[in-house]
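[Amino acid chain]
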Amino acid sequence: MVNFKQVQGYLEKIAEEYNLPLNVVEEAFLSALATAYRRDSNLKEAVIQAKKSPTGSIKFYLVKKVVCEEELKEVPFNEEKHILLEEAKKINPQINCGEEVLFELPEPQDFTRIAAQVAKQVLIQKIREAEKSSIYEEFKEKEGKVVSGTIEKKDPNGNILVNLGKTLGIMFKSETIPGENYRPGQRMRFYVYAVENTPQGVKIFLSRAHPLFIPMLFTIEVPEIADGLIEIKGIAREPGVRSKIAVYSKSPNIDPVGSCIGAKGARIISLMNELNNEKIDVVLWDEDPTKYVANALVPAKVLEVKQLPKRTMLVLVDEANLPLAIGTKGQNIKLAAKLTGWKIDVRLASSPESLIEGGVAEPGNNESTES
């Protein structure tokens, strides 16, 4: 007699080793037993099902699908797999076409031989399939979120393999922060931008350069954002160099910029350290686009903003703030344009008719998260 109690401890160890629910392992074991039974019998095309009885014994059943006469015009009748509706109703008068009838099969006389087949081949395959499915479901839920991992190694193409505990993730070279070093054993945080289930296994794609990595880190570090008291309205980023994040609060009692920066800059410093000292400008979002653009050009102090046709903003500054408004290699004005979605034209207030070299920036691909 095949008894489930004989293998219960073995299955529990497998569940623990592969970090799988015990019921998943038990189902895999029963499925594997059924496969082994079919291979050992003359029922080569049959569907066999193994079930655990209340007493712990394992019963084997031949599963037959109920078919109607009209179905046989398209699908040839197979005695091992099919039963005609007329015959099925003799067993269960309420049964209908498409349902199944189970016929109990004799117990295998040589359980040792069947068990050997199961242990070496089918069971391991089923467990691996269950493990793969479990990993995919777990990390699919983390898509669009931040995870922690340990640097495993760098491949010849500059891609980084990351140990995520149960599996490895990959961070392509294009998703790394320029100038950042990745040492084996180093623990870091990553943005999960895609999870795919492929024949080769679960592929988890990570990034530290993704624009949405910034707001996700802020959500973790700033409780007011996590609690919904502060809303992130937009993000523009040049990885490893500078980012601008726009924030807003409906509550007059909350300072969204100050909350994100933290007491003595503690929160923003922590985030900058996380990002290889990437500068982060926290910008106050405003429904008035002229005020929003002025805020976005921080650290520059703007004298005046005029809205022009073709979604353009003319920004006037004094000489001291001109280099701050434009930034090194036009970095500040480009990020401000991308953040706000407006073309920005920065000029001196003393000569507003004159164009400034590098003083115009197009919004390009706006990465704003504004709704």
Notes: The mean pLDDT is 90. The two ends are 65 Å apart (CA to CA).
